[in-house]
Design a protein that fits this description.
Blueprint (H helix, E strand, L loop, with lengths): L17 H7 L11 E6 L8 E3 L2 E2 L1 E5 L2 E7 L7 E7 L2 E7 L6 E4 L11 H18 L19 E2 L6 E4 L2 E2 L6 E4 L5 E3 L4 E9 L3 E9 L2 E8 L1 E2 L6 E2 L4 E4 L10 E8 L2 E3 L10
Parallel strand pairs: 8-10
Antiparallel strand pairs: 1-5, 2-3, 2-6, 4-5, 6-7, 9-12, 10-11, 12-20, 13-19, 14-15, 14-18, 15-16, 16-20, 17-19, 20-21
Length: 273
């Protein structure tokens, strides 16, 4: 069969190259919406060009060949999907996952139902943020293991189907960490600051590009202590915990993106705050 060399790694109940590759990579694959699929690629001397939904995908050596590390958006439909490898479709399978519901009460109704002026601001901010989510700075290679950006309990989990003041809204595309106002927020891994600003939903926010399409967003900050273009090491101060933007109280929201798809940061949490 022409596609027999393409596998989804970490497929339940099967013995495959998954076990070997999982030992080589510093995280465990989770091929579900909002997770990460690791797909084996044909052996070749140089890194293949891989895309998913038109976005470039990072690759890593594995044994004599390569694997693609594919971020899967929450909107991805379970079943057979495909990446493009040097222009050829390579199939893989996304497994289903259902996330729980979260109900939140906010005092500011405009953060639930923005007015016309707010909508215009949001549209401008989305245009501004779009290149940050796609950032791929030359020379940066992500380690694919991260530390929690600030100490605290993990509260609102990634993927929650959120209802604000009784109104359904987009699923939670990050991880919330309950922390006191003013507590230090630190870079979860080395990277470069590609965007900072005060945004309608995110409040004071910092985008850090870690390399090869891997991007962190740290938001709701009370203070930002970095500048765009600044190069960071893991543990460098980024700002302080706050409750700016759409937030019901002080906490840190951390989104992690691969190939412009928001994924569960817990997949890569290999360190400690």
């Amino acid at each position: 069969m022409r596609r027999s060399w393409a596998f989804v790694l970490a497929t339940a109940g099967m013995l495959s190259p998954a076990a070997a590759v999982d030992r080589e990579l510093p995280f465990r694959a989770s091929p579900v919406p909002g997770g990460v699929a690791v797909v084996t690629l044909p052996a070749k001397a140089t890194a293949p060009v891989v895309t998913y939904r038109g976005e470039p995908v990072l690759t890593r050596r594995s044994g004599q060949g390569w694997v693609a590390v594919v971020g899967l958006p929450l909107s991805a439909r379970p079943g057979e999907q495909a990446i493009e490898v040097d222009g050829r479709a390579v199939p893989f399978v996304i497994k289903p996952k259902r996330y729980p519901e979260q109900r939140v009460t906010l005092k500011d109704q405009r953060k639930v139902t923005p007015n016309a002026e707010d909508e215009a601001r949001i549209a401008k901010e989305q245009v501004l943020m779009a290149p940050a989510w796609k950032a791929w700075p030359e020379g940066l290679v992500p380690a694919l293991t991260f530390r929690q950006p600030t100490p605290g309990d993990l509260t609102a989990s990634f993927g929650l189907r959120r209802v604000f003041n009784g109104v359904p809204r987009s699923p939670h595309s990050g991880l919330d960490i309950r922390s006191p106002q003013g507590q230090a927020v630190r870079a979860p891994a080395p990277g470069r600051v590609v965007l900072t600003g005060d945004f309608f939903y995110s409040g004071n926010a910092v985008f850090i590009a870690h390399g090869e399409g891997v991007v962190s967003l740290l938001c709701h900050l009370s203070k930002i202590s970095v500048k765009e273009g600044q190069v960071l090491q893991a543990g460098d101060a980024v700002g302080e915990v706050g409750s700016t933007g759409r937030a019901s109280g002080p906490h840190l929201h951390w989104s992690l993106s691969l190939n412009n798809a928001r994924v569960d940061p817990r997949i890569f949490l290999g360190g400690h705050p």
